[in-house]
Design brief:
By secondary structure, this protein is mainly α. The protein has one domain: ABC transporter involved in vitamin B12 uptake, BtuC. It is about 75% helix and about 0% strand. Helix 3 packs across helix 9, helix 10 crosses helix 11 and helix 11 runs antiparallel to helix 12. It is globular, with a radius of gyration of 19 Å.
Length: about 325
């Protein structure tokens, strides 16, 4: 497209703050119900949903705002989990130190790999993010001091100045929901800002943005770093929940699952990723109770998502492949 051609209208993000608040209230209500019934299983289910939703929301920001479809988003999530494990081995367990460490390590990885991946477009971007994620997977599998391929249990959940406040499942669930709400609302405000407008403008017409003297590369790199850092926080929470860390956390299967969550809920709304996470986790649990072939049912849901919502991601890929 010629730089002199009129730029297409850049869509404003749909107001999703009310939707996000409603979804957080739903998760909190589910947690209260589980706690009232004395069900640690229910509390664990809500916690896992909130953790995966946190990672999915960060990926939704990349896909919906910048048009960056990453197939390696599980890598920063796994790095955040390993940050908890490694910090614990050096007696660093304070949650106020562990969460920033997980965010920083994952964001730094996303920054370094994103600087290279953003030199590509479309399917090539997807493949190079997958390649970087697999590289980290094999590096983690080779860390014999931290369990190698089998992984390693963490000594205990993170503390708050020595107090084991996250030991009860309820407290960890509340922290996960609070961080999910903070991330979702923060990203909503970011998407509605001038920076978010720059991201969407670059997604719609990169050549026009460059002709105006603006740098879409830098804006996208920041977006990748922020999304990677948030995924790292989700990984730290996941490590605290299962009290175990292994290279499987970085597997491409989890990256694909996060993409499915985003597609199911719709990438235009960050709250949609929360809905997608709820659907996937609940289907996973429900189908697993009725049949050992539960993956078949989940596969049919994924197929339906590709048929009915896949055009949205394909359109983003098509826009990102130009320039």
């Amino acid at each position: 497209m010629s730089p002199l051609a009129p730029a297409p209208a850049v869509p404003r993000p749909r107001a999703g703050i009310g939707q996000t608040a409603a979804l957080m209230a739903l998760l909190a209500a589910a947690l209260a119900l589980a706690y009232g019934l004395g069900s640690s299983y229910g509390a664990g289910l809500v916690t896992r949903t909130a953790i995966l939703a946190l990672a999915a929301v960060s990926l939704s920001f990349l896909i919906g705002q910048a048009g960056l479809v990453s197939f390696g988003h599980a890598a920063p999530l796994g790095i955040g989990a390993y940050a908890v494990l490694i910090a614990g081995e050096y007696d660093m367990t304070n949650i106020l130190a562990v969460l920033p460490l997980a965010f920083g390590a994952a964001a730094l990885f996303a920054l370094a790999t994103g600087a290279i991946a953003l030199r590509t477009r479309g399917v090539y971007f997807i493949m190079i993010t997958l390649a970087f994620a697999q590289m980290v997977f094999y590096v983690a599998a080779s860390l014999s001091a931290f369990g190698g391929d089998d992984g390693m249990a963490i000594a205990a959940r993170s503390t708050f100045f020595g107090a084991r406040i996250l030991k009860p499942d309820l407290h960890l669930a509340l922290l996960a929901i609070a961080l999910l709400a903070a991330a979702a609302l923060g990203l909503e405000h970011l998407a509605a800002s001038r920076y978010g407008l720059m991201l969407r403008a670059g997604r719609e017409n990169e050549t026009k943005l460059e002709a105006l003297g603006l740098d879409p590369y830098r804006h996208r790199l920041i977006a990748i770093s922020v999304a990677g850092g948030i995924a790292g926080v989700a990984g730290a929470l996941l490590a605290n929940q299962v009290e175990y860390v292994s290279p499987s956390t970085m597997n491409w299967h989890l990256s694909g699952e996060l993409i499915v969550m985003v597609v199911l809920g719709g990438s235009r709304r960050l709250g949609g990723a929360v809905i997608g996470a709820m659907v996937v986790v609940l289907l996973d649990e429900a189908l697993g109770r009725f049949t050992e072939h539960w993956k078949l049912g989940l596969g049919l849901v994924i197929l339906g998502a590709v048929l009915f919502r896949g055009a949205e991601v394909r359109a983003l890929l098509g826009k990102f492949s130009h320039g």
